[in-house]
Design goal:
Structural class: mainly alpha
Shape: globular
Order of helices and strands: HHHHHHHHHHHHHHH
Distance between the termini: 44 Å
Radius of gyration: 22 Å
Oligomer: single chain
Number of helices: 15
């Protein structure tokens, strides 16, 4: 019995699927390059302009197009072969990185040109995310391993967040930003090769008989009439707006509260990363039949307590402990929400559902950052983070209440059905 339970809790069981193994290996290399580029772009902008406004604008240039076009990306993912869509977005991303490399290495460029190329990446990502996330479902042979696959994806992203900027720092000092972009372009070759070696036993079909606008409306109708999916989209929207942008204030803590420098900020981000990686290992090791909604709410509670405890702390050592809690909670929210949406939605709607998830998760955060930044100018960073923690607990309490109410309603309907069946037999 013990041996069987260990097998069931295997942390890497998604690797039994050949397509997923190929995807993971290629994406691991590509993500390091992606984070090298993400680190180098603001560096290039700031070195040339010395403007904090231009730094914010460069981030907006990449994020907003993804928010704007993500719903159309979902329609494209459901309408066409998502495998081919993903292959196309990876090739286009390679070309975009190559354009950046040529611009910077030629030394004849402006900050506006860099941002213009960043807008192109934002548009590509709007179509890439729904195709990539929904294709993971098809890569995994045993659908019970989907949570494991998505959790391993999260661990891959978090490790790349640590390794990519570290490599970028070395490259920026030794060779310059142009080579960060060139290495990112080369890294896409790995994921493109892994995609080309994939084989799908079942054809990834699509329906192109309907008009795209009609499909867009159908996606919205499906989400609003499927309570389980609507619940998760609403949940992640509120959290992305009111809670997740806490990281916008970490620089204030590092410099003004802990009297530190960039290294102090690095420590805080590293311990958040430790919590995120620990969370991915925990989620990847869960049993197949775990109650994901309950775990999601528990993670929200841990996140809220972590933020409240961190908010007015003045000791950097304790701050790092609470940062681990925050990292765990943040990672669990995205991973579990993604898993529930993928396993609950019907195949022909999966791309559109993921596009709404991407819109809620990635699109609301920039708006949340603006809101948090505005509030903190009046009440200070510690009180703002305290409010974010309280908001997380309020979300936990209200969604727990509604979830219990939904469970009771289901039980009542089930009992009523049993009584009706008995009466029919009598």
């Amino acid at each position: 019995m013990k041996v069987k339970s260990i097998k069931k809790i295997s942390t890497f069981r998604a690797f039994k699927s050949r397509n997923y193994r190929l995807y993971f290996s290629g994406q691991s290399i590509s993500l390091i390059g992606t984070w090298m580029q993400k680190t180098a772009v603001p560096w290039v902008i700031y070195i040339q302009t010395h403007s904090l406004f231009m730094l914010g604008l460069s981030a907006f240039a990449t994020q907003f197009p993804s928010f704007l076009f993500s719903l159309f990306g979902g329609v494209v993912s459901d309408r066409y072969n998502k495998y081919r869509v993903l292959l196309a977005t990876q090739i286009l991303s390679l070309i975009q990185a190559l354009l950046l490399a040529i611009l910077v290495l030629s030394k004849h460029y402006t900050a506006w040109e860099i941002m213009g190329v960043s807008v192109i990446l934002g548009i590509i990502n709007a179509f890439d995310v729904p195709a990539r996330q929904s294709l993971v479902y098809d890569m995994v042979d045993n659908k019970e391993d989907l949570l494991n696959a998505i959790a391993l994806n999260s661990s891959m992203v978090n490790l790349a967040k640590i390794a990519g900027p570290a490599f970028a720092g070395i490259m920026l000092e030794k060779l310059g930003a142009g080579w960060c972009f060139m290495l990112n372009a080369i890294s896409f070759v790995a994921v493109i090769i892994s995609l080309l070696f994939m084989r799908f036993t079942k054809p990834i079909t699509s329906d192109k008989s309907k008009k795209p606008i009609k499909e867009l409306k159908e996606g919205f109708t499906y989400i609003t009439t499927t309570p389980e999916i609507g619940f998760i989209i609403l949940f992640i929207s509120i959290m992305s707006l009111l809670v997740l942008p806490y990281d916008a204030l970490l620089s204030v803590y590092a410099k003004d509260i802990f009297n530190g420098n960039a290294t102090t900020l690095g420590y805080l981000n590293s311990f958040i990363g430790v919590g995120a990686i620990g969370g991915t290992i925990f989620l990847a090791s869960l049993k197949d039949k775990s109650n994901l909604k309950t775990i999601l709410l528990i993670a929200t509670f841990i996140f809220g307590i972590g933020l409240i405890s961190f908010s007015h702390i003045t000791d950097i050592k304790w701050a790092c402990v609470f940062a681990i809690m925050m990292g765990f909670g943040m990672m669990a929210l995205s991973t579990i929400s993604n898993t529930i949406l993928q396993t609950t939605s019907i195949p022909e709607m999966r791309g559109r559902v993921i596009s709404y998830f991407a819109m809620a998760f990635f699109g609301m955060r920039p708006l949340g950052s603006l809101l948090i930044g505005w509030i903190s100018t009046y009440i200070g960073a510690p009180n703002t983070v305290l409010m974010e923690g309280i908001a997380a607990l309020l979300v936990f309490g209200s969604f727990t209440f509604f979830m219990r109410k939904a469970i009771l309603k289901k039980k009542q309907e089930s009992n009523l059905e049993v009584v009706e069946n008995v009466l029919e037999k009598v």
